[in-house]
Amino acid sequence: MVLKIEHLTGGYTGVPVIKDINLEIKAGEALGLIGLNGAGKSTTIKHLLGLLRPQKGQIRLNDIDLSRQPSDFKRQVAYIPETPVLYSELTLKEHLELTMMSYHLNEKNAWVKAQELLQLFRLDDKLEWLPIHFSKGMKQKVMIVSAFLADTSLLVIDEPFTGLDPLAVSNLITLINEATAAGKMVLMSTHILTGAEQTISHYAVLNNGTIEMVGSLNAIRAHYGLTEADPIDRIYQVLNQEQQNA
Ligand SMILES: Nc1ncnc2c1ncn2[C@@H]1O[C@H](COP(=O)(O)OP(=O)(O)OP(=O)(O)O)[C@@H](O)[C@H]1O
Fold first, then answer.
1. pLDDT of residue 62
2. Which of 45-59, 128-142, 155-169, 220-234 comes out lowest in average pLDDT?
3. Closest Cα to atom 2 of ligand 1
4. What distance in angstroms lies between residue 23's CA and the mean position of ligand 1's atoms?
5. Residue 126 counted as domain residue
6. CA neighbours within 13 Å on the CB side: how many for 182?
7. Whose CA is nearest to atom 7 of ligand 1?
8. What range defines the domain where residue 208 resides?
9. Mutate which of 41, 53, 190 to test ligand 1's pocket (most atoms within 8 Å of Cβ)?
10. 206 CA: nearest ligand 1 atom
11. ABC transporter domain location, by residue (predicted)?
12. What confidence score (pLDDT) does residue 230 get?
């Protein structure tokens, strides 16, 4: 399996927000999408989820083209949004049943996996709860459980670490590492670089709607003139300086 984003130009109106984006994620790889606020990370993700129509370019998972076979493509993709999206009238159990139906999962096998994930995130005794009873972090955990339950080839994760306690962060990192070890692909947008390095194989830096570079953490350090002693988050200061000089 390979995800290919080729010459993607798009956005919300006629004026493109992202321009000529080229990205590739192979089986077993986790790509970190980084960049300042407004750089175009969420817009790229919205295109990848089929929520926005490209002005130019294409997105393919192997030979499945998103614009031509949207249902086949979307069945291969699970998404963990930055802000949890839950139906107020559905219990946790019903949310998981919805995931099982949407992804055509075998219910018996899926419940075995669901129980493991629920236990990991300490939600196993909350199956009858409605979203109103959940804290922000618990809602985020429901999104995580649903996404890993879906067992798709590609996992798209937007700002995964905000709002989670350290135990949940550590469990999420373990799950992502297990997914890539099993040959799945991950695209993760994140501002929190410390910690992300435990899961991410390479990074793409978005700056003002274009990909400025793709590479390992060391390649990024070299590109932006950072030394090994510099905290990796220093990259944001360099990007900010670049924008001010432009
Ligand atoms: N719904 C929208 N309609 C019009 N323009 C939008 C919309 N959402 C975002 N934009 C614009 O698109 C550009 C890229 O925004 P995007 O949300 O992709 O950035 P981001 O890199 O995800 O930022 P952040 O780190 O703040 O989440 C910004 O200039 C933003 O103003």
1. 92
2. 220-234
3. 12
4. 19
5. no
6. 14
7. 12
8. 1-76+155-160+187-246
9. 41
10. 21
11. 3-233
12. 82
In a domain, 234, yes or no: yes
Give a yes or no: residue 100 inside a domain. no
| Helices 92-102 and 136-150, axial angle in degrees (round to 10) | 30
Average pLDDT over residues 149-169: 92
Q: What is the DSSP letter of 197?
A: G
Q: Considering the chain, what percentage of its residues have pLDDT values greater than 70? A: 100
The dihedral of CA 25, 206, 137, 80: what is its sign? Answer: negative
Number of domains in the chain: 1
Contact 84, 132 (CB under 8 A): no
Nearest CA to ligand 1 atom 6: 12
The pLDDT tens digits for 188-200 are 998 877 777 888 9
What does 38-103 look like in DSSP terms, one character per residue?
TSSHHHHHHHHTTSS--SEEEEEETTEETTT-HHHHHTTEEEE-SS----TTS-HHHHHHHHHHHT
Q: Which residue ranges have their beta carbon within 6 Å of ligand 1?
A: 12, 17, 35, 37-43
Given pLDDT bands bounded at 50, 70 and 90, which one contains residue 14?
A: confident
The answer to the question of residue 33 being in a domain is yes
pLDDT tens-place string over residues 109-147: 999 999 999 999 999 999 999 999 999 999 999 999 999
Helices and strands per DSSP (H, E), number in the chain: 8, 10
| Ligand 1 atom at shortest distance from the alpha carbon of 36 | 25
For residue 1, the domain's CATH number is: 3.40.50.300
pLDDT of residue 73: 97
Which of 8, 36, 43 is the pocket-test mutation for ligand 1 (most atoms within 8 Å of CB)?
A: 43
Whose Cα sits closest to atom 16 in ligand 1?
A: 40
The confidence score (pLDDT) of residue 241 equals 84
